[in-house]
Amino acid sequence: MIDAVVNGRPGTAMQSFSHTLTRVDIEAVVDFVRLEFMVNKAENTRYHTARNGWANHERYAPAFPFALGEIALDTPGDSLTREQQLGQRVYLESCVSCHDRAKVSDDGAMWELRAVSYPRNQYSHQRAADASAVDATTRASPYSKHGHAPAVENLSLKERQGEQLFQRNCAFCHAADGSGKNWIGSFLDPQPRNLTDADVMKTMPRSRLKTVIRDGLPGTTMSAWKQVLKDEEIDSIIDYIGRAFHPVADESTKQ
């Protein structure tokens, strides 16, 4: 048990506490667990008890088949009995926070590229872009790789001006790498355009891209920049996009 606390258990959620607790503290925790849970089997270690706020736990009986894995949690409601539908709802409302998703028929995506909580705790997308810093509070770190601008050699003076303007104004939503897959961008609906995607860029010739930057896109978070950027500055941003992310066509492309 001491080894598990010190070194963690690979392949499980049990992490190493060697950098959090002293050896004396770890031994004290292990002694407490062994005495309280294993030797004394103390009443307070049983979660679903009246003492722990779970009076009449049997009232959740319809949810038990989902907690025990007897019925997959993602079973379509129309194939469940009325009591099972109730149990499914009770499980999702009251049990899932501790029992996790239980048994499911479809594991779904291993990693869903969508943030689950809004930025808080003085979050800064520039700080999250520092790959050496792990943001354990806001969970922004997985998106940090999109916070680094690509290294582009031999930029012209105009393209370098566009780089500065893009990274200062546009990267907040579109990400420093133009993908729109940074943490802030993942909250926006619809998500910002991926300026590195060929399918996206073939519908964004220079004339349309300039219009969108200048006038914005109604119904989205893409605001109009005509009161902030001069026409020549917008042109320099487009030049930079064309060099750093994806070539920008000069004429409209029909679908």
Structure commentary:
There is one protein chain. By secondary structure, the protein is mainly alpha-helical. It folds into 2 domains: 2-99, no CATH class; 121-255, Cytochrome Bc1 Complex, Chain D, domain 2 (Orthogonal Bundle), CATH 1.10.760. The protein contains 9 helices and no strands. Helix 6 (157-174) crosses helix 9 (231-244) and helix 8 crosses helix 9. The mean pLDDT is 86.
Fill in the keyword field for this structure.
2 domains, 0% strand, mainly alpha, elongated, Cytochrome Bc1 Complex, Chain D, domain 2, 255 residues, 9 helices, 37% helix
Please write out the topology.
Elements: H1 2-7, H2 23-39, H3 64-67, H4 82-99, H5 125-128, H6 157-174, H7 198-201, H8 206-215, H9 231-244
Helix pairs in contact: 6-9, 8-9
Sequence of secondary-structure elements: HHHHHHHHH
What is the CATH-assigned architecture of the largest domain?
Orthogonal Bundle
What is the helix tally? 9
CATH superfamily of the largest domain: Cytochrome c-like domain
Q: Which ranges are low-confidence, i.e. pLDDT below 50, for 5 or more consecutive residues?
A: none
CATH class of the largest domain: Mainly Alpha
Described by the principal axes of the CA atoms, the overall outline is: elongated
The helix-and-strand class reads mainly alpha
Number of structurally distinct domains: 2
Summary?
The chain has 255 residues and is an all-alpha fold. The chain is 37% helix and 0% strand.
